[in-house]
């Protein structure tokens, strides 16, 4: 109700025994000046002390009374109020509590005179508290010593009351000066009360730490009448606090308390783990704020489970992020508690990043071994010193027909056909293997279905995760025994093959760190396996200027690419070596867990290639010279024909000589293009066409018809064997068009198209002239030009067509391009 009883009076909910404050109303907060959080950390005695008797009103007889005394309570600013409590016992959040209503009686007592010569008798409070009540004078003489004081400190009242010098014996000698200075300061400044913690010595000589709540009574003149002290033994609490501080502040694990979704307390180790200060965490950050985004839901869920009480305690791990953005792995153990009357979680936190990474590397190593082990096509079994199978690969399961669980723990006898073998000799083989002597022999074995077959067996000593073992490698040779008698039997398992490989091989993990190299690698680069293990391979054998290039190559291999490059690498002595490098990823269940770097020394090959390249260049120069000379020789022949043409008066002979010159020029042009190219085996036919047309046009300049040439040519290259026939065909088609297609016409058009696609060459030549006369027999032509065109087209294995159009003729040719 607004402005009603509960709004006008300060109300406290107290623990029924200890008087710890569990809750307050807004009126109490307003009257005494403390916040709700501060109240919840206090006891009613922290607000003040009981003062004097007062009768309980008849109206309150039906209520459970907190006390029949006046309480002198202080506000946060030190202002005093005299109150009387009325209470009602009830259950509050599962515990027995009292609702205490504070009635302000200051005004009722203002008109009563205090006795200045006598401190009012203050009887002990009811209840089970452990507070000793002591009244003492300004000159530090005890005036009253309660039963609680006797029980707590061992002295009887008659031994201490008005005994001079008692305080000097009672207060610990190391604290005399500080305690007496505090008393003098309180008296001089007229403090109404003060609180202090200090050490005292009981009658038996035991040192105790006590909490003192002192109220000072003054007369009207301001003189000290007496001091009323309530003393509480906090020795054990102090010891526990120091022990807690020692445990938490110096703990090697993070310790925390979570309430309302944020950390209320964190110890230095937790701050160190995440890189924050206590001020940056306490009251500001919650556990989800320290988790990686993908793990925040599980952190929030586990906190909620404990706060709601669905689980009392829980342990789990998650990925977290430090202040600097570094990802770490955390393991936490937390339990539900009540703190200041509200649900909370307290627990420990451990940085397990190193352990996690170590475990992952170990797992990767084991998975790599498993992957390689099961990739071996031969049946491989690892047997302990007692002759029992420790491990078998997939090939063993396939060879003998047993499941793994049927063989693990069994002996090799399960796979033997005893009647067909000399078992004494077989035992000797195994004994020799135990002594380090590799044994190879043929043996009769038996499958699960009873089938007996002959196998080739290699038995050798080895080590399996630090234990001495026998490695058995077997292969079914029953169907190919005769052809394989002279073949050397496989004697070692996969790591022995790795060890004996002639190629340098290095196995690296995902951090590019070397895990193992084989002897060939050691010989090739001069390093030992122990020197390289754990190092970044690119920082060891790659020169500084090529490091980024090598690291990028390694990254691509880890992404799944199989790479092969030729480059230089460094030996231990600093010299370089030409190598062919293969990067091969090792996958397990679709995940790349490592890579193999395979190195082939190609120094000799590189030197030989350089020698070959030098020789090739010499031959290319020679070939270019040959093409040049052929071209010059053809030019001489063309010149001779031209001289002959000038000396010949017969017109038909002149035409024949002219046509022969053009044909020779078309061939000479091919050789010219070849010796001008870097590639002496290919001719760019599109460029050749332009120059050929220029030559033909120049030779036909005397013709009456004005001919327009349209060329549509894409880049295409042909070998000399195809370029020469193709050039001659073009020569014949273009010259024929010039000479015969446009008779008695002033102008004409010749269109030429060249194209290459899908390894085929396409040629089309057409004109808008008169076409091929009907009198021409295309199957048995009398024209040398047409005969040449057909013959050369067949030489190219091409498909060709002569097509008469409404206006003109079209020729098409298609053939496969030589590689």
Model description:
By secondary structure, the chain is α+β, with helices and mostly antiparallel strands. It has seven domains: 105 residues, PAS domain (Beta-Lactamase); 108 residues, PAS domain (Beta-Lactamase, 2-Layer Sandwich); 101 residues, 2-Layer Sandwich (Beta-Lactamase), CATH 3.30.450; 132 residues, PAS domain (Beta-Lactamase); 101 residues, PAS domain (Beta-Lactamase, 2-Layer Sandwich); 79 residues; 138 residues, Histidine kinase-like ATPase, C-terminal domain (Heat Shock Protein 90, 2-Layer Sandwich), CATH 3.30.565. It has 26 helices and 33 strands. The strands form seven sheets. The chain has a six-stranded antiparallel sheet. It has a five-stranded antiparallel sheet with strand order 8-7-11-10-9, with helices on both faces. Strand 5 and strand 6 form a beta hairpin. Helix 22 packs antiparallel against helix 23, helix 23 packs antiparallel against helix 24 and helix 25 packs antiparallel against helix 26. The two termini are 103 Å apart. The N terminus is likely disordered.
Question: Concise description?
Answer:
With 819 residues, the protein is of the alpha+beta class. It is 35% helix and 32% strand.
Topology:
Elements: H1 5-8, E1 10-15, E2 21-24, H2 26-32, H3 36-39, E3 48-53, E4 69-74, E5 80-92, E6 95-104, H4 106-109, E7 131-136, E8 142-145, H5 147-153, H6 157-160, H7 166-170, H8 176-188, E9 193-201, E10 207-218, E11 224-233, H9 235-249, E12 254-259, E13 262-266, H10 268-274, H11 278-281, H12 296-308, E14 313-321, E15 327-339, E16 342-351, H13 353-375, E17 379-383, E18 389-392, H14 394-400, H15 404-407, H16 423-434, E19 439-446, E20 452-464, E21 467-476, H17 494-500, E22 504-508, E23 514-517, H18 519-525, H19 529-532, H20 537-541, H21 547-558, E24 563-570, E25 576-588, E26 591-601, H22 603-647, H23 651-676, E27 682-684, H24 685-699, E28 706-713, E29 717-719, H25 720-741, E30 747-757, E31 760-767, H26 784-795, E32 799-805, E33 808-816
Parallel strand pairs: 28-30
Antiparallel strand pairs: 1-2, 1-6, 3-4, 4-5, 5-6, 7-8, 7-11, 9-10, 10-11, 12-13, 12-16, 14-15, 15-16, 17-18, 17-21, 19-20, 20-21, 22-23, 22-26, 24-25, 25-26, 27-29, 30-31, 31-33, 32-33
């Amino acid at each position: 109700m607004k402005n009603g009883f509960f709004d006008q009076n300060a109300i406290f909910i107290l623990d029924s025994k200890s008087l710890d404050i569990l809750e307050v109303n807004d009126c109490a907060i307003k009257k005494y000046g403390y916040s709700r959080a501060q109240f919840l950390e206090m006891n009613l005695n922290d607000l003040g002390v009981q003062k004097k008797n007062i009768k309980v009103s008849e109206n309150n007889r039906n209520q459970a009374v907190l006390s029949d005394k006046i309480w002198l309570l202080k506000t946060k600013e030190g202002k005093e109020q005299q109150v009387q409590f009325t209470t009602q016992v009830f259950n509050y959040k599962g515990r027995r509590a009292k609702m205490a209503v504070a009635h302000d009686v200051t005004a009722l007592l203002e008109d009563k005179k205090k006795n200045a010569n006598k401190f009012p008798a203050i009887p002990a409070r009811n209840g089970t508290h452990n507070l000793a009540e002591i009244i003492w004078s300004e000159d530090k003489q005890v005036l009253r010593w309660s039963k609680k004081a006797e029980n707590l400190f061992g002295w009887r009242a008659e031994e201490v009351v008005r005994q001079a010098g008692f305080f000097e014996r009672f207060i610990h000698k190391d604290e005399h000066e500080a305690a007496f200075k505090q008393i003098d300061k309180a008296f001089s400044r007229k403090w109404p009360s003060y609180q202090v913690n200090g050490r005292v010595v009981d009658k038996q000589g035991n040192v105790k730490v006590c909490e003192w709540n002192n109220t000072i009574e003054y007369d009207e003149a301001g003189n000290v009448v007496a001091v009323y002290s309530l003393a509480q033994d906090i020795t054990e609490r102090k010891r526990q606090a120091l022990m807690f501080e020692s445990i938490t502040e110096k703990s090697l694990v993070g310790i925390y308390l979570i309430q309302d979704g944020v950390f209320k307390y964190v110890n230095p180790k937790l701050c160190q783990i995440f890189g924050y200060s206590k001020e940056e965490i306490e009251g500001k950050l919650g556990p989800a704020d320290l988790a990686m985004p993908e793990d925040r839901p599980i952190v929030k869920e586990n906190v909620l489970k404990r706060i709601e009480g669905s689980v009392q305690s829980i342990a789990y791990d998650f990925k977290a992020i430090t202040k600097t953005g570094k990802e770490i792995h955390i393991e936490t153990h937390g339990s539900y508690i009540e703190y200041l009357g509200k649900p909370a979680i307290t627990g420990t936190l451990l940085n397990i990043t190193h352990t996690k990474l170590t475990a992952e590397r170990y797992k990767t190593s084991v998975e790599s071994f498993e992957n390689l082990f099961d990739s071996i096509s031969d049946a491989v079994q690892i047997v302990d010193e007692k002759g029992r199978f420790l491990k078998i690969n997939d090939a063993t399961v396939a060879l003998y027909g047993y499941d793994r669980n049927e063989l693990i723990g069994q002996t090799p006898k399960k796979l033997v056909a005893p009647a067909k073998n000399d078992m004494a000799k077989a035992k000797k083989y195994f004994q020799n293997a135990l002594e380090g002597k590799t044994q190879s022999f043929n043996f009769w074995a038996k499958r699960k279905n009873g089938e007996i077959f002959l196998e080739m067996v290699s038995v050798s000593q080895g080590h399996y995760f630090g234990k001495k073992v026998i490695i058995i490698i077997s292969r079914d040779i029953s169907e190919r025994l005769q052809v394989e008698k002279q073949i050397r039997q496989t004697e070692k398992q996969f790591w022995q093959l790795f060890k004996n490989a002639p190629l340098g091989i290095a196995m690296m993990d995902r951090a590019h760190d070397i895990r193992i190299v084989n002897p060939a690698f050691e010989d090739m680069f001069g390093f030992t396996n122990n020197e390289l293990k754990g190092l970044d391979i690119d920082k060891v054998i790659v020169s500084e200027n090529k490091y980024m290039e090598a690291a990028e190559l390694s990254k691509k291999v880890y992404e799944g690419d199989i790479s092969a490059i030729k480059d230089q690498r460094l030996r231990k002595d600093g010299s370089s070596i030409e190598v062919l490098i293969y990067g091969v990823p090792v996958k397990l269940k679709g995940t790349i867990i490592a890579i193999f770097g395979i190195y082939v020394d190609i120094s000799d090959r590189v030197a030989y290639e350089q020698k070959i390249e030098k020789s090739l260049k010499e031959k290319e120069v020679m070939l270019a010279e040959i093409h040049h000379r052929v071209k010059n020789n053809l030019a001489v022949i063309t010149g001779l024909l031209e001289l002959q043409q000038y000396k010949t008066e017969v017109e038909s002979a002149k035409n024949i000589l002219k046509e022969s010159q053009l044909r020779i020029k078309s061939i000479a042009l091919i050789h010219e293009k070849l010796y001008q190219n870097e590639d002496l085996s290919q001719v760019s036919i599109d460029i050749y066409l332009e120059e050929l047309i220029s030559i033909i046009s120049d030779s036909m300049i005397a013709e009456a018809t004005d001919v327009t040439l349209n060329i549509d040519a894409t880049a295409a290259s042909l070998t000399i064997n195809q370029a020469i026939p193709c050039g001659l065909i073009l020569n014949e088609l273009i010259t024929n068009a010039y000479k015969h297609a446009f008779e008695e016409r002033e102008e004409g058009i010749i269109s030429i198209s060249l194209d290459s696609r899908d390894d085929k060459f396409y040629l089309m030549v057409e004109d808008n002239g008169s076409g091929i006369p009907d009198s021409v027999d295309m199957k048995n032509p009398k024209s040398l030009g047409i005969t040449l065109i057909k013959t050369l087209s067949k030489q190219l294995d091409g498909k060709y067509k002569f097509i008469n159009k409404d206006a003109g003729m079209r020729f098409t040719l298609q053939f496969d391009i030589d590689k």
